[in-house]
Amino acid sequence: MKPAVLDEAGLVRWGRALGETAARETVFVALLGPLGAGKTRLAQAACAGAGVRDPVTSPTYTLVHWYEGDGGAVAHADLYRIRDASELPGLGWEELESHPGAVFVEWAERAGGELPPDRWEVRLEFAAGGAKRNVTARALGDAPPIPDPALHARAARTPSC
Fold it and tell me: For the sheet containing 133-140, what is the strand order?
């Protein structure tokens, strides 16, 4: 799958669509990518799309934040500070995996083989120049189709005559 190239506005637009669909379909969303790639910004937009009206902050130190969205509770977790998957039970991993709503997990690669088989995976990478992101998104297992990030890329502007 070829990545979509999104600027920040496109990432936010797509994030809102992602969150709205994830909340409606009760999807676990694994957010992958290097430090500074936009995982938290995407999670904030996704939570807004899921109907969260409170400020969404990075759960780097608390590991998990719960918010009330339009369709119920929305979880936002950050695994940056864990060493490996053996620490997952201490942060309530079973509750996150079985939560009947949207779950957004930053640094999901640190969960290793403990990620649920039915999920969306979103990989964010720096695009050339650093201001845009390459976004690759896929549905795994029995997860519903994921919104296409390419639909939210800014169309190339053509000069007017």
Answer: 4-6, 133-140, 119-126, 28-32, 103-106, 72-78, 64-69
